Amino acid sequence: MLRRLGLRSRLVLIGTAGLAAGLAIGGAALVLALSLSLRHALDTSALQTAHDVSALVNTGRLPDPVPVAGAQLVQVVDASGRVRSGSPGVDRLVPLLQPGELARVGAGERLTIDGARAGMDGPLRVLALTAGPASDRMTVIVATPSGTLTRSSAILRDTLLVAYPVFVAVLAALAWRVIGLTLRPVEALRAGAEEITGRRGEGRLPVPPAHDEIHRLAVTLNGMLDQMGFFFVDEDEFAIAPESWEVVTRTERIGEVLDAVIAHVGSCDWTPEGIAFQPVLKALGANVRKTMPALYAVIEGVHRGLPLFDSMCLLGRARTLHRLRSALRRVA
């Protein structure tokens, strides 16, 4: 499916998907961190209250009722399950926890129970400490309403669920615009290449002002077009540059060389080994190093930097022969 989309659409889609996934993970981590932080704060406050009440039990100064701060609930339960003391409003007959639950919180576990046990709405988070002499061990139970924790996490979660999609949509629209501006020079290169194709190689690609990868690509492509200019020109309009023609006329025995090369090109295999001019020039006794620039000039008009075999392959056998014969007539 992605292959059917344009480059701009693919970039926006991949970027937006990655951003949405990152924000989703970050949002989930934020909600979890808030929940754990609030839970830790509740447990810390409740544990401090449990230590304070345990100190009163250990010193034999346990009051009734037990003074507490905030909405915490405290019960002091003995080994037989009897409520020995508690904070104001706490049931003095029925413990908040069942015997099995008492054993669990006594071992250090934190529990969440229904607030209906204490006549309250919402859940209660409960922890406990043991206190008192060995002959009269008691369990100090501290319960804290945890509905605020749940509500705070829910508010944050709902806010993120509303804000994140809007945020992602805005960033996706911005990315669409920015990527479109970034790819505009590429479209300009494409349009320029299409125009050059229609004009048979005349003209050059637009070079963007920014010195970036697209700028370097345009410069490279224009350099390639400069090298291939000899290919696009019609044979009737092909001309050897004056400075290159001087190289041709200064070459010793150029007429014989062109005669031999024409015969060779007309019958050789069209392969790098078959086209090679060196054996032909050596057979004539011509200086290969001094003669090759003239052959480049005759075929390309001016040496473009391409290997001669590549230039001839671009032109084909017929066009190469036409240029060699035209140069021979001009020399004669």
List the helices and strands and how they pair.
Elements (H helix, E strand, L loop, with lengths): L6 H52 L14 E6 L4 E4 L12 H8 L4 E4 L8 E9 L6 E8 L1 H52 L14 H15 L1 H4 L9 H9 L3 H14 L4 H4 L2 H7 L3 H13 L7 H8 L1 H15 L1
Antiparallel strand pairs: 1-2, 1-5, 3-4, 4-5
Helix pairs in contact: 1-3, 6-10, 7-12
Question: Could you explain how this protein is built, in words?
Answer:
The protein has 332 residues and is an alpha+beta fold. It has a domain at 230-331: Arc Repressor Mutant, subunit A. Helices cover 61% and strands 9% of the residues. It contains twelve helices and five strands. It has a five-stranded antiparallel β-sheet. The longest helix has 52 residues, at 7-58. It starts with 6 loop residues before the first helix and ends with a helix. The model has no long low-confidence stretch (mean pLDDT 85).
Nutshell version of this structure?
The protein has 332 residues and is of the alpha+beta class. 61% of the residues lie in helices and 9% in strands. It has a five-stranded antiparallel sheet with strand order 2-1-5-4-3.
